Amino acid sequence: MIDPRSARLHGLDTLRALAVTLVVLHHYTLFVSHDDATFGWLGRIGWAGVDLFFALSGYLIGNQIFAALKTDAGLSLKAFYARRLLRTLPNYFVILAIYFLWPAWGENAPLAPLWRYLSFTQNLGLAPGTAFSHSWSLAIEEQFYLLLPALALAGALLRLRISVAWVVIVCVVAAGMVLRAQLWSEHVDAQKYGIYFYYKLIYYSSLCRLDELVAGVSLALLKNHHPDVWTRVTSHGNRMLVAGLAITGLSFWLFLDQHYGFVATVFGYPLLGLGFGLLILAALSPRSLLRELRIPGAGRLAVWSYAIYLTHRGASAVAAAPLQALGYGPHSIVAVVLLLSLSVLSGWILYRLVETPFMALRERYVPSNLARPTFSPAPR
């Protein structure tokens, strides 16, 4: 997941808080209440919160990389990877250990082999119904963190034109559309177990789910290498917001209407990436409504979002049964409030006990992504 400290903009915090809220609501309907009607259409479309995280990660990580490459010091792959690993691995390993040691935390579902989780390849051919299945998105992000800085640094060393990066982005989006179309036609269309193969071969697949990540990378590329264009587009923040809401709403309608259909499968994800990209632009634009928006608690949810993402499903799984025994089923207001509160509380505990000390270590020993530290002249 993204680093909440990399940008303290209220608009981005709002988007992060929205992303984790959507995911928690969706997983509640999917794994706790087993009823799409629990939160209405928000619960049904809540999976898109992961895609919003992807778009935010693409921008924030891409911006760090491209900004470092523009400096005299340059980008250090060693520092970049160290910072990423200290950010993502401690929380992840703690929760992974809980899944393997406490089956009830994983809804007593089967786990993939441990090496798949340790190598961040669990999303490849992932069978639906596996415990800790929501870690598929973390696997894709770790793959992204591994490849993007290396590719960007190689491009800089080879002195490739920025136009090459834009061509690569267009090719990635086009290739994803073609691949999804082919897989849908061969394994989903009119197949008895089409939905199963939709998730296994398309939804969880790295090559099929790059649209939102490259949308975020495109924004970072625009900001760092086309400053005049960036200034022009961010001067119309509220227009970007309206356009982003309209396109995101259209993509939501498309997925709600025909989630597993051909059109949604092929064109829905790029459309979602475009909508989220415009919302991020609005969040970064001076004087835009989204950038200035203050929602109580959104900043804290944003900071805790990675930890909440890791813990919420297991915490709800463990607590739902005792509540049911007390007469509070998952559809009751009492259960909904308590389980959602527990989802946030469990994330906060992980954040305080694990994430916070490791982030302090990161700031002490790997304070930047630069290849050479910069020093300010000593005061005279």
**Record field, number of beta strands:** 0
What characterizes the major β-sheet? none
Strand and helix order: HHHHHHHHHHHHHHH
Which whole number gives the mean pLDDT? 94
In DSSP terms (H or I, runs of 4 or more residues), the helix count works out at 15
Give a topology summary.
Layout: H1 10-32, H2 41-45, H3 48-70, H4 77-101, H5 114-118, H6 136-157, H7 162-188, H8 194-203, H9 211-225, H10 227-234, H11 237-258, H12 262-284, H13 289-292, H14 298-325, H15 333-365
Helix pairs in contact: 1-3, 1-12, 1-14, 3-6, 3-9, 3-12, 4-6, 4-14, 4-15, 7-8, 7-9, 7-12, 9-10, 9-12, 11-12, 14-15
Summarize the structure in short.
Helix content is 72%, strand content 0%. The chain has helices at 10-32, 41-45, 48-70, 77-101, 114-118, 136-157, 162-188, 194-203, 211-225, 227-234, 237-258, 262-284, 289-292, 298-325, 333-365. It is mainly alpha-helical.
Describe this structure as you would to a colleague.
The chain is mainly α. The chain has one domain (4-365). Helix content is 72%, strand content 0%. It contains 15 helices and no strands. Helix 7 (162-188) packs antiparallel against helix 9 (211-225) and helix 14 crosses helix 15. The longest helix has 33 residues, at 333-365. It is globular. Mean pLDDT is 94; it is low at 2-7 and 375-380.
